[in-house]
Amino acid sequence: MTYMGRRGLLTGAAGLAATALTTAIAAGTASAAGAATHPEAAGPRRGPAAPEFRGMWLATVENLDWPSRAGLSAARQQSELRAYLDTAVQRRLNAVVLQVRPAADAFWPSEYEPWSGWLTGTQGKHPGWDPLGTAVAEAHARGLELHAWFNPYRVANHTDRSRLAASHPARAYPEWTVSYGGRLYYNPGIPEVRAFVQEAMLDAVAKYPLDAVHWDDYFYPYPVSGEEFDDDDAYEEYGGSFASRGDWRRNNVDLLVKEMGEAIARVRPGTRFGISPFGVWRDRANDPLGSPTGPSLGSYDELYADTRLWITSGWIDYVVPQLYWHIGHPSVDYAKLTPWWAQAVRGTGVDLYIGEALYRADANSETAAWRKVDELSRHLTLAARYPEVRGHVYFSGKQVAADRLGAMARVVKDHYPTAVPPR
C-alpha cells in the first residue's frame, strides 16, 4: 500500500516551512532511519533553562482542567484561563504547560487541523478568540513561561470518523488511522503521518513565541489486553530492514523526536523541546541499565518510546518523568526512580524536572502515604539531594488551584519561600 502526503494542501508561511520538512522526510527516510540509531548525532541546545523550574500542567482533553466545560462564552473561557495563570503566580510557580493539541485538533487558528471541540462543543467551530495566542501573552505578562503541550498521535477518544469535523485530515486519509482500545490514532509507522503531525505542531511554533514545545507520555498507545495495534500494512511496507516490529516501532518514534527537535530549532530558535515520559524506561530485570524497580510497564517495551536514547542523543532539552508514585512504593518507589533519572541525564546537558502526582494527594486515598499532607513536600526534599533535578511539574491545574488536602500549600511553604523568575 502506498500512502500519499498532504503537501499540496498546505498554505501559508508555516505551511511553506513545514512542506520543506515533509519533502526532506519523504526524500530521506532511509538515511534518517540510520541516523536515528546513532546517539552521537546530538541536536543543538536551545534557550537557557530557568534557575529552578516550577510548573503545572493545564489539561484540556475532556475538559479535565480548562475550559471547565465545552461551550462557555469566550469571555468566560478567558476569565478561567487568567484565573489559572494567577493561581500559578500565587503558588510561586514560573511555568504553565498548556495542552493545545489534545487530539489532532487545535486551540489556535491552525492551517492543518480543526478547532478543538473541547472549546465550543463542536469540533471545527471557531471559539471567537485565539486561546493559545492569549495564553502566551497573558503568561508572559505575569512572568510565566508558556510551554505548549501537544499530543502527536491521538486522533479521538472514540473510533467513529464520521463524528470528526468534515475538514479533519483523518477523514480525508482514513488509511492514516488505527482503531485501538476504543480510540482512534494516527499510525506512527507511516512516514507521511510523521511529517504531517510535525507540520501541524510547527504551525503553532511559527506563529507564537512559545517558551517550549512539550509532549507527554502518549506515543504508541498503552497496551489493551486482548487487542493488537493493527499496523501490519505499514510494517510490511516500511519495516523490512528491522529485526523486529518493536525495533521498527521504536525507530518510528525516535525519528519523530529527532526531526521535531531539529525543526523547532529551525523554525523558532530559542524555543525548547521537552518530553514527559512514563516514569519507568525499563526495569533492571529486563535491562542492566534499567531502574531498580519491580515488575512494571516500561516506556521502551510497551510504548516504544526509548526515552533514555533521546536524552543521551541530545534530541530534547528537558525531560519530565512522571514519577506518580509515593516514597516506599513496593514496585515503583519514588526514592529509587529519582536517582535513576538523575543518573540518566548526568553529563548530557538535558535538564531534569520531576512530574509530581498532586492529584493523588487525597484525604480519602486508599494509599496511606497520599493521605499525608507532607508526602509531596518529602518528594522535593528527597529530590534536592540530586543536583541534576532542576525542578518539578504538578498534575494538574485543577488540583493546584483547589489543593483539597493542602499538599500544594505545604510544598510552597517548605520549598518555595520566594518567587523564582523565568529564564
Structure, explained:
With 423 residues, the chain is α/β, with parallel strands linked by helices. It has a single domain (7-39, 58-415), classed as Alpha-Beta Barrel (TIM Barrel). It contains 15 helices and eleven strands. Helix 13 links the parallel strand 10 and strand 11 (389-394).
Q: Count of DSSP helices? A: 15
Poorly predicted residue ranges: 1-44
Mean pLDDT: 90
* End-to-end separation: 48 Å
CATH superfamily: Glycosidases
Keywords for this entry:
423 residues; alpha/beta; TIM Barrel; three-stranded antiparallel sheet; 36% helix; disordered N terminus
Short description:
The chain is of the alpha/beta class and 423 residues long. It is built from 15 helices and eleven strands.
Secondary-structure map:
Layout: H1 12-27, H2 29-35, E1 53-58, H3 74-90, E2 95-101, H4 117-120, H5 131-141, E3 145-150, E4 154-156, H6 169-172, E5 177-180, E6 183-186, H7 191-207, E7 212-215, H8 232-238, H9 245-267, E8 272-275, H10 299-302, H11 307-312, E9 318-319, H12 334-345, E10 351-356, H13 375-383, E11 389-394, H14 397-402, H15 407-415
Parallel strand pairs: 1-2, 1-11, 2-3, 3-7, 7-8, 8-9, 9-10, 10-11
Antiparallel strand pairs: 4-6, 5-6
Helix pairs in contact: 1-7, 3-5, 7-9, 13-15
